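== Fold encoding ==
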Amino acid sequence: MISKRALPFPLGPGTRVYLIGLCGTGMSSLAGLFRERGCTVAGSDSACFSPVKEMVEDLHVTLFPEYREENIDSFRPDFVVVGNVVGRGHVEGERVLNSAIPYFSMAEALRIFFLEGRERIVVAGTHGKTTTTALFAHALEGAGFHPGWFIGGQPADLSPHFRVGQGRDFVLEGDEYESAFFDKKSKFFHYYPTTLVLKRLEYDHTDIFSSEAEYLTAFRHLLRQLPSQGTLFLPSCSPQALSLLPHSYSRTLLYGQQQGDDLRASPLSSLFPLEFELFRRGERSGPYRLNLLGEYNVENALPVVATLLERGVESDRIAEILASFRGVKRRQEILCPGPNHLLVDDFGHHPTALKETLRSVRLAFPHHRIGVIFEPSSWSLRRRSFQEPLIDSLRDADELFILDIRAKEKVPEGERLDLQAVAKALESSGKRVHLFLNGENRAERVEEEMELFWKGHPQSVTTIFSNGPRLGLERTLPPRIRPFNG
C-alpha cells in the first residue's frame, strides 16, 4: 500500500510542481502522476509532438512553449523536476540553481513521491523493457492486483501509460541512462527494486558508457540493491546477463528456452500470433497465446506468467489475460493490417533489436517480401561505432528505404554514420536500396517509392524503424494502397 513516510512536500491541490523538459515520454508521465495526486502542474519544452502534446492538454498541465526563466518566476513552484535534456547553461536550469527552489531529477522524484512503501517491480536491460513492463502492468491489472505503473511507451490496453495505483505493486522500466546533469548515475539506481526482471544485455548508450565493461558494471551494481528476499529473473539466452549471476544474493530464476531453465518456454507456433507452453520446475502450464511478433516476446512473458502463478492466479485466467494484450504503440505495432500487405512501426534503436525484429517478421510472414524504412534517430545509431552491426542487421530485409540521419549536425562528421557506405554494402549483398539524403522532400519521395514497392509485390510487410517522431506514413500511405482493409 501507499507509504506513510512523510514526503518532503505534501502532494495535493496546494502543491505546485514545475517540470523542465515536460514533453519527454518519462517527464510527461511523471506530470500525469502528480496530476493524479491533485497537484497543480506546469512545465516547459521547446517542442511537443503527438501523442505527448494531446496527453499534456488532456491533463490540464500548463505548457510553456519555450524555455525562459520568467516561466518559473511566474509559476512560483514548490519544487522543480529537471529533465535530462537540461544541461549547464540552460536558462531555466541556471534559474533553478541560482534560486532557493528545491529540485530533483525525474527518477529521484518518481522514487520519493510514488515508490516509497511499494513492491517495486523493475524491468531493466538493453532490449524489451517497454513491452515487458507493459505486459506486467496489464497482467497484474487484469488479475485484480490494481498496480501502479510507469511505462516508457503507450500500451494499447492501458491508458494512460502511468498510474499511481492502489495496490502494493508498482511496475516500471529501469533505464540505465543518466538521470540529470547534476545526477550522473543511471535512473534505475533510484528505484531500489524488490523484484528485478533483467532483459537481454548488449553494449548500448556509447555516449554515456565508454566500454561494454563499464555498461555491465552499472547492472552489476543494480543487483546489489536487490534485497536477499527479493527475486531476480535472469535471461538464459544472454551471456552478458548470465555473467552477472555470481553477483546475485537474491532468489534467482533463469528464464528462456534452454533445458535446465527454471522457467522454460516451449514454443508451439512462431507465426502470428505466438503460442507457447511454460515449464516451471518441471510442471507444465498453458498453452498461452500472444498477439505479438517474435519469439523473444515469449521470453518477455515468462516472468509475468510465473509471478501470477505464484500469486495463485489460475492458468486459464492467465491465458485470457495474455491473449488480451495488444502490445505497445511503436513496438512492432501493426498499423495497417490487410490481406496482402502490412505496415509495422517499431521504435528501433539498436542493431540487435532491428535484426531480431526483422527475423521475427520473416518467421511470421515467410511468403511476404520484406521492406524496411530506416531512419537513424538514436544517439547510438547516428554514430559510426555501430555501422558494421547495422549493415548486418539490415541484410534481413529485401528492399530498404534509408532516410537521412536525424539532427546529424549534432554528431561530429568524423564520428557520424556513413549512410552511403551502408547503402553500398547492402547493395553489394543483393539488396535494393533507396537513399534519401541532404534535406530531400523525403515524405513525398518515400511515399512515391513505397507505393511502387507495394504495387510491385502482391504480398509484403514494411517495417518502419525510427525512434524519432512518427514519420506520418501510417496516415498517408494506406489510403493509396487498395489491398489494405484497415
Q: What stands out?
A: Residues 333-480 form a domain with the Protein-Tyrosine Phosphatase; Chain A fold (CATH 3.90.190.20). Residues 25 and 152 are 6 Å apart (CA to CA). Residues 296-310 form the longest helix (15 residues).
